[in-house]
Amino acid sequence: MRKIAVIPGDGVGIEVTAEAVKVIEAVMERSGLDLELVQFDYGAEKYLDTGITLPSEQIEEFRQGYDAIFIGALGDPRIPDRFHVREILQNLRIKLDLFINYRPVKLQNAKYCPLKDKTPQDVNFAVLRENLEGPNPDIGGVFKSGTPDEEVIQQSIITLRGVRRICQNAFEFARRRGRKKVTICNCRNALHFETDLWTRVYEEVGKEYPEIEKDSTALEDLVRQMLRCPENFDVILTCNSFGDIIADLGAELQGGIGVAAEGNLNPGKISMYMPIHGPLTQLVGKNAANPLGAISAAAIMLENMGLDQETGWINNAVKYALDTDNTTRDFGGRLGTRQVGDFVADQIRKGAHS
Questions:
Q1: Which domains does the chain show, CATH number per domain?
Q2: How far apart are the C-alpha atoms of 178 and 351, rounded to whole Å?
Q3: Using one digit for the tens of pLDDT, what is the confidence trace for 22-36?
C-alpha cells in the first residue's frame, strides 16, 4: 500500500484539498488502487495554538514511511511574516531535497486563454526550475538601518551540483516525454557569474542529448515570447528566481491560477504536490474557491507515482469540466467548490471521457 500525507493547510486549502481527496477516492474506487491518505493538521491554527510548525521528526517520518505529500495552501493574515509557511515549505523542500519544481502549462480550452487566436496546441509546455538555490533568505543583512543611507545585501548561492542535476533532469524529461526543445532562461547582463555557470553546464549536458534542440533566451525576451508565441516552447529550464515569474505567467496563459498545479520533486523519492494558489482567505466558507488546481496537483502526484492511466482519468475529467463550464465563477461557471469536485469525481466513476 502506498501512503500519502495530506496537509490541507490554511484558508481555502482545506476546502480544495477535500475535493482533491474526493477525486483520488473516486480513482481508487474505479481502479482498485490501494492508497492510504493520512491527514495532518500542520498550518496556521496549529502554529498559533502550540507554536509548532513542522517538526523535524515528522519530516523524517514522511521520508521513511510515505510515498508523497499533498498540501492544499499555506498562509494566514494573523501571521503576517508567514513564518509558519517558510518553516513548513522550506524545510520540506530542503530536508527532502526536492530540487525540481515542475509546472505543467497546458491550455485545456481556447476560451480560457487571454491571448488572441491561441489554441491548446499552442499553449502546451513545461517549466522546470531549480527549487533550492538562488537568493537565500538567511544570507545577507541590513546596514545603517533607520538612516537615509540604509543599505541592504541579499546574497544568492548557486552550485555546480545544483545546476547540473536540474539540467540533466530537464533533458531527461524532454526525452521521456517526446519534447523537442529545451530553452534555458538567462540574464547575462545583470547576473554574469550565475549565467556563465548555468550556460556552461547546460551546453555540456546538452551534448548528451543531440536529438533535442537547444535554445538560450534572456528573461525579458522569454516572457515576451510567452505572450506572443507560446508555441515556441516545449520545456523551459530556469533558476529559482526566474521560475516563479515564468510559471505564474504560464498559469495565466492556461486560464488562471485556479487550475494550475506543481510538483516539488526528487525523482525516485518522496515528493510534494500542491495547487499554486494561496490560502485566499476572503473566500473561506463561501464554497467559491476553484478546486481544479488541487485536483490537477493530485494528477501530477499520480503521474509521478507511475500511475499513467489514473492520471489520464483525472486530466480528462478536468478538461471535460472546463469544456462544459462545470466550473466555479472565476472560470465562468456557476458551481461551487464542492459541486466541481463532485462533477469531476462522478466523471471518473462513470468512466466517461477516459
A1: 1-99+266-354 (3.40.718.10), 102-255 (3.40.718.10)
A2: 27
A3: 999 999 999 999 999
